[in-house]
Amino acid sequence: MLHNKHTLQYSLLLLFATCTNTYVLCCIHGLYHVNCIWSNISSLVFFFFPEACSTMEVKPSANPVVVGQSITLSLSPPTSLNSGSWAVGDVFILTWSKLGDKDQVAVYPNYMGRASIDGSRALTLSSLSMNDSGVYTMRSTDPGVTASLIRTFIFFVLAEPVSNVTTSSNDSALIEHMDTAVALCSVSSGSFISLVWFNSSSEVTANDRVQLTEGNSTLTIVKVSRHDQGPFTCCAFNPVSNATSNPVNFTIYYGPDNMNMTLGSHTTGSNVTAVCASESNPPAQMQWAFKEQLLNTTGSVLELYHVTKDQSGSYSCFAFNNETNLSRNVTGYLDIKGEEGKKYYYKNTHFYI
Ligand SMILES: *[C@@H]1O[C@H](CO)[C@@H](O)[C@H](O)[C@H]1NC(C)=O
Ligand SMILES: *[C@@H]1O[C@H](CO)[C@@H](O)[C@H](O)[C@H]1NC(C)=O
Ligand SMILES: *[C@@H]1O[C@H](CO)[C@@H](O)[C@H](O)[C@H]1NC(C)=O
Ligand SMILES: *[C@@H]1O[C@H](CO)[C@@H](O)[C@H](O)[C@H]1NC(C)=O
Ligand SMILES: *[C@@H]1O[C@H](CO)[C@@H](O)[C@H](O)[C@H]1NC(C)=O
Ligand SMILES: *[C@@H]1O[C@H](CO)[C@@H](O)[C@H](O)[C@H]1NC(C)=O
Ligand SMILES: *[C@@H]1O[C@H](CO)[C@@H](O)[C@H](O)[C@H]1NC(C)=O
Ligand SMILES: *[C@@H]1O[C@H](CO)[C@@H](O)[C@H](O)[C@H]1NC(C)=O
Ligand SMILES: *[C@@H]1O[C@H](CO)[C@@H](O)[C@H](O)[C@H]1NC(C)=O
Ligand SMILES: *[C@@H]1O[C@H](CO)[C@@H](O)[C@H](O)[C@H]1NC(C)=O
Ligand SMILES: *[C@@H]1O[C@H](CO)[C@@H](O)[C@H](O)[C@H]1NC(C)=O
Ligand SMILES: *[C@@H]1O[C@H](CO)[C@@H](O)[C@H](O)[C@H]1NC(C)=O
């Protein structure tokens, strides 16, 4: 199970807007994830926020911001407005006014100790929490300012970094083409988390055998194949961080299949080594047969010493996997040539001398 403390669902987060360019971060928040895309859609912003057009901009020092950190909202171009206020939504953060040479700053009780402004009227907010996402507004009543109210809209995402990503599976051995593998990914903290699985280094995508459910926290592979051994890792990420889990491996029993045998032709009196191979996990138990009669030999190698002509014929290798309960066989033909070839060769050699 994915433990996500924050299930806030924002739909639109605007990073900044000016008269000339409007940058919007549109985010669709599910319970466990957020998908954000940057877009440049002036009309959308002015539709929602007709007052976004101002000669002044507010620039956040970071966006999105990590929970617990600070953010500074600077005015661009920098100004030294005599009086004004900062607010988020309808809630005032602080107000200031210049009396003589001195700034009088009044911080509202909810923001006491974590809000301040500097000479250029940039607002610094510290110890940010998820609640601090919102529309930030700077109002000024200075006579020098064209509009009596300067408002700029700042939305920002406050994301908690992802931590402690762990994967687990019930780790039983699975039989190829029959069993279902299940791995779970859990994240103990973080917000707006997206989860992606990797098999070794390639991203796992859903298909008819692979299911990604519960916001990708559950990976299910039905009718596992030998290529599903892993290692599988789960990567959790959000706009501010990412973390990768421990690997999970599956034990998958398969085979025997893709069998082959090497035999070839030999002359009498030579030694013959036949090797039988198969793809199998666990390795297949093997037994040999000559002309369909089982031999005592087990194991993947059959050794025949000083072979005679009557050892020519079909050799079979039977492979059995005791976990999958499957068996296969492969047959090869051993051709033992007599000494005639050699004699003929010597005769010919003689002929030429
Ligand atoms: C944003 O869109 C406007 C109008 O569609 C365009 O003129 C401007 O070049 C765009 N800005 C960027 C950075 O793409
Ligand atoms: C966030 O706001 C909710 C309700 O508005 C409140 O219950 C909660 O205590 C606030 N959390 C913080 C950290 O301010
Ligand atoms: C990490 O997550 C696991 C499983 O959710 C939990 O048992 C463990 O206590 C967590 N560790 C830390 C340091 O949070
Ligand atoms: C492994 O877990 C899955 C899902 O939780 C379950 O269907 C399956 O029976 C479990 N297998 C074993 C051997 O426990
Ligand atoms: C789930 O995983 C897929 C494939 O990696 C990815 O495209 C998708 O964005 C993920 N969804 C979530 C909710 O994290
Ligand atoms: C993961 O975080 C590291 C820095 O911690 C960053 O370099 C990397 O690009 C991030 N990867 C993704 C996929 O977000
Ligand atoms: C998983 O398999 C990889 C290689 O296939 C291996 O390096 C790793 O040690 C295995 N991990 C576990 C937990 O068995
Ligand atoms: C065949 O094997 C036997 C026993 O290992 C060995 O003595 C002999 O030299 C080998 N013959 C050839 C031709 O390699
Ligand atoms: C024989 O089979 C083994 C295992 O199945 C395989 O690795 C090898 O490439 C095969 N050899 C040939 C010549 O097909
Ligand atoms: C084959 O096995 C049988 C019984 O296990 C044994 O009696 C016989 O001697 C063995 N033959 C050879 C050639 O090892
Ligand atoms: C299969 O054989 C191996 C040894 O050859 C043994 O350790 C294992 O327990 C056997 N498995 C079954 C299911 O009989
Ligand atoms: C050997 O394999 C063939 C298929 O490749 C199968 O038809 C035959 O029955 C097998 N022989 C034995 C004795 O299992």
From TrEMBL:
All residue ranges annotated as the Ig-like domain in the record: 161-251, 256-331
Where does the chain cross the membrane? 12-32
The protein's UniProt keywords, in alphabetical order, are: Disulfide bond, Glycoprotein, Immunoglobulin domain, Membrane, Signal, Transmembrane, Transmembrane helix
Q: Name one Pfam family in it.
A: Ig_3
Q: Does the keyword Signal apply?
A: yes
Q: Which domain of life is it from?
A: Eukaryota
Q: Which residues form the signal peptide?
A: 1-22
Whether Glycoprotein counts among this entry's keywords is yes
Q: What is this protein called?
A: Ig-like domain-containing protein
Look up and give the organism this protein is from.
Answer: Periophthalmus magnuspinnatus
